[in-house]
Every structure is written in C-alpha cells, then in structure tokens.
C-alpha cells in the first residue's frame, strides 16, 4: 500500500519486500488496452537479451506529457520526464509508456539511489535506468494500447473504444446490430448468428443468446441464458433462463430465478420472480407471478397476481397443466390450482382447486 503519493518510484519502493531474484513486470493500472501479445513480446525480448530491464516505448506525433527516451552513444538509456526536459529533449517523439520488465534484484538495488530532486519533488521510477547495467527498448506500433486514463472524460472515451471492439466482434460473427452507438454489450456476452439487436439495448454479465433472436429496442438483459428464436422487446431480464421460441414484452420484467420453457408468451407489464412457466403457456397482460410453477398450456388472465408474501415468508403457487385463470384473479399462496381447472374472473382464491373444477369467489352483483 502506497499511503502517500510520492511518485512511481516510491510506489515500487512500497512493494520492495516482494522484489527478489525473479524478473518482474511492472504495469500501470490506468492503461486498459495493453495486449497479451505486446507484453509477451516484451518479456521474450527481455529474457533473450538478458537485460537488466526492457522498456516498452512508442512514437507519438504529439509526445506532450510523456517521458522522453534518450539513447546515448554508449547504448545506455535515460528517460527524462516532460517537466524536466529541455527544449531539444522535448523534440524527441519516442516516449516511455511506463511499462517495463526488470531483474528484481537489480531493480531493488537501483531504487536506493533515486531521489526526489526534480520539478515534481517525487521519486521517479524512470530514474532507476541510470543505475541498471543493460537496458533494452521494445518499440510498440499501436499507440492505442498505451492510452492512459486520467479523468472521467478519458474513462468514457476508453470505454467507448472497448465497446466498439466488442460490437465489431459480434457483427463479424453474423449478429446484426442496428445502431452501435446506442448498444452496450459487455465482454463476456455470447450471441448466435442472425440475431438482431435493436437500438438502445444493454446486454451485460455472462449472458448467452442463441441464433435468430430479436432483442430490443429499449431492452436490458443481465446474466441470462436465452435460446434460439426468442423475441424480447422493451423489457428487463435478469438471472433468467429462456428457451426456444419465447416472446417477451413489451414492458415485461423477468427477475431472478425465472424459467420460461418453449413457446411461452409473456406480455406487457408482466413481472416474474422465481417462476417456472412451462411450454405453450402465456401471461399476456398486467400480471405478477412470484414463487410460482405454471404447467403446460395454461392461460393467465390479465391482472392476475400470485400473493406470495404473507408478511413473514414467501409461499408458493402451483398451477397445473391446462388451467385457465380468469382476469383480475388473486391466488393467495400457498395454493394449488388443479389440471384443466377454470378460475372465474375477479376471484380471490385461498384454497386448493381440484382438477377439472370451476372455482368462483365473488359476491353477488
């Protein structure tokens, strides 16, 4: 832990007890684009040339703000920080990226020689190169890899670059993304070919989406497993599993533990939580299904709610195959609705309904 920010050299001094006779790679935490290939190339050159240190450089048209790499005739290398550079040194375009490999013991010894005698009054890690036996340089071709982030503006710019790379990957794999500028997909998401992603869609976490799906617009998905030919419009889905040929939305909300089997339809203003809905069943309007099992070929009428919370604990509702739940029904859990039964509209059901039965719970008009 670096309790005081006294420069990059001081930061490494704070970790001095970890330095030994092994080689050590030191990176900056605000440089997110650096690639495995580049780091591997740097390490390989370091080991091959048996250097005390091997640094990563890059040539910039505008090197302002970066430490300049000074290569002397005796092949020694010196790095001069921007604030300490003279006029001629500032003309040098090859700059130090801050990334380097070191022989641990030599670095540890060199750290004892550096001082804060500079414009910043800090311990520069770059000063150690004057005290190392042999310093090599690997020049990087793609300057994008070493873009640093110093404020929220640069953070947003970096995020946009990464997002565009993710979107390109999906589009090259056969996914149609209608408006990349308004589409956000995180790195771990997998999407099958011929799926269409409409504008203003956000897909996060370890989500997998099959082929021939239509997602969006105005949709947010997180940590879901979605199979082929699923349509989700203007909806939110989280920690849910959705099988083939399911239709969701608009304005649906699938919460954690939802499982929708094949050919299920979930419509506008329907919310589910820890609900398993079996093949060919549908809840098309204004419904809440919490802690609920719904069998096959069930119709859930508009305005139906499962009353799963009694003030102390959550209770389960079981609706068997072929049941028909009339509009505006309240199912007070725990309760079981039998096979092929029919619950009249406007009912409050507090007791189990047998198979093939008609259940009504209304006062006389």
From TrEMBL:
Cofactor(s) named in the record: Mg(2+)
Domain Mannose-1-phosphate guanyltransferase C-terminal: 187-278
The protein's Enzyme Commission number: 2.3.1.157
Endpoints of the signal sequence: none
Lineage: superkingdom: Bacteria
InterPro entries: Bifunctional_GlmU, GlmU-like, GlmU_C_LbH, GMPPB_C, Hexapep, Hexapep_transf_CS, NTP_transferase_dom, Nucleotide-diphossugar_trans
GO molecular function, one term: magnesium ion binding
Catalytic activity: alpha-D-glucosamine 1-phosphate + acetyl-CoA = N-acetyl-alpha-D-glucosamine 1-phosphate + CoA + H(+); N-acetyl-alpha-D-glucosamine 1-phosphate + UTP + H(+) = UDP-N-acetyl-alpha-D-glucosamine + diphosphate
Keywords per UniProt: Acyltransferase, Cell shape, Cell wall biogenesis/degradation, Cytoplasm, Magnesium, Metal-binding, Multifunctional enzyme, Nucleotidyltransferase, Peptidoglycan synthesis, Repeat, Transferase
Domain Nucleotidyl transferase span(s) in chain numbering: 2-132
Family: In the N-terminal section; belongs to the N-acetylglucosamine-1-phosphate uridyltransferase family. In the C-terminal section; belongs to the transferase hexapeptide repeat family.
Annotated PANTHER family: BIFUNCTIONAL PROTEIN GLMU, NUCLEOTIDYL TRANSFERASE
HAMAP family assigned: GlmU
Descriptive protein name: Bifunctional N-acetylglucosamine-1-phosphate uridyltransferase/glucosamine-1-phosphate acetyltransferase
């Amino acid at each position: 832990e670096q309790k005081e920010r006294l420069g990059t050299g001081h930061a490494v001094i704070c970790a001095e007890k970890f330095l030994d006779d092994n080689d050590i790679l030191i990176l900056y935490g605000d440089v997110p684009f650096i690639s495995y290939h580049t780091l591997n190339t740097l390490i390989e050159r370091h080991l091959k040339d048996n250097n005390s240190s091997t640094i990563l450089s890059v040539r910039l048209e505008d090197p302002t703000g970066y430490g300049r790499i000074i290569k002397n005739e005796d092949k020694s290398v010196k790095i001069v920080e921007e604030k300490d550079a003279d006029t001629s040194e500032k003309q040098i375009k090859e700059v130090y990226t801050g990334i380097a490999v070191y022989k641990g013991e030599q670095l540890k010894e060199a750290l004892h020689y550096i001082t804060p005698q500079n414009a910043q009054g800090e311990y520069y890690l770059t000063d150690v190169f004057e005290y190392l036996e042999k310093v090599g340089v690997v020049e990087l071709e793609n300057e994008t890899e070493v873009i640093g982030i110093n404020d929220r503006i640069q953070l947003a710019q970096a995020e946009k670059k990464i997002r565009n790379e993710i979107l390109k990957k999906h589009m090259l794999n056969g996914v149609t993304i209608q408006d990349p500028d308004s589409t956000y997909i995180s790195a771990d998401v997998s999407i099958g070919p011929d799926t269409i992603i409409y504008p203003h869609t956000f897909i996060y976490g370890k989500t997998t989406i099959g082929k021939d799906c239509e997602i969006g617009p105005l949709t947010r998905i997180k940590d879901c497993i979605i199979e082929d030919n699923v349509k989700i419009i203007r909806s939110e889905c989280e920690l849910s599993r959705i099988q083939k040929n399911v239709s969701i939305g608009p304005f649906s909300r699938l919460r954690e533990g939802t499982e929708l089997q094949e050919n299920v339809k979930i419509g506008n203003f329907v919310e589910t939580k820890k609900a398993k809905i079996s093949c060919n069943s549908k809840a098309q309007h204004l419904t809440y299904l919490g802690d609920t099992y719904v069998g096959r070929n069930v119709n859930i009428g508009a305005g139906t709610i499962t009353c799963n919370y009694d003030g102390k604990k959550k209770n389960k509702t079981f609706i068997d195959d072929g049941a028909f739940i009339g509009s505006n029904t309240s199912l007070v859990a725990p309760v079981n609705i039998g096979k092929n039964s029919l619950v009249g509209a406007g009912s409050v059901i507090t007791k189990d309904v047998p198979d093939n039965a008609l259940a009504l719970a209304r006062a006389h008009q």
